[in-house]
Design brief:
Length: about 160
Amino acid sequence: MEESVVVNKEEDLVDLPPGFRFHPTDEEIITHYLTPKVLNTSFSACAIGEVDLNKCEPWDLPMRAKMGEKEWYFFCQRDRKYPTGTRTNRATESGYWKATGKDREIYKGKGRLVGMKKTLVFYRGRAPKGEKTNWVMHEFRLEGKFYYNLPRASKKIS
């Protein structure tokens, strides 16, 4: 009889088969996880934790993850730099996440745009003199016709 792996993070108990890996495609992240989370804030996924990236340093993330060894997945509500502005706050106590490269489009099926993927690198210190680290994060957001038809309250969560 094969043993199963049990992931225990205080509030969650997940019984998984040996060798289980959570490795969704970009399109699966958007359609099966992010969209349901935006539509229903109480939605949860056994493999995806919730964290406030502005109050958590990158080296603390592995301890807050529900599963994963070198890749972790989290839901995080976007923080605004200014209450009435559109700029995103990506600063932590010891550094900041800086966008790198251009955003990549994520399509579902035959070319229907459903989301965007942004790559961010963590820098220690404050801009513009921060020191680049090896921490990389991919940020996903909803985009396309479906997103623009969401109720106004749902858009505030993304």
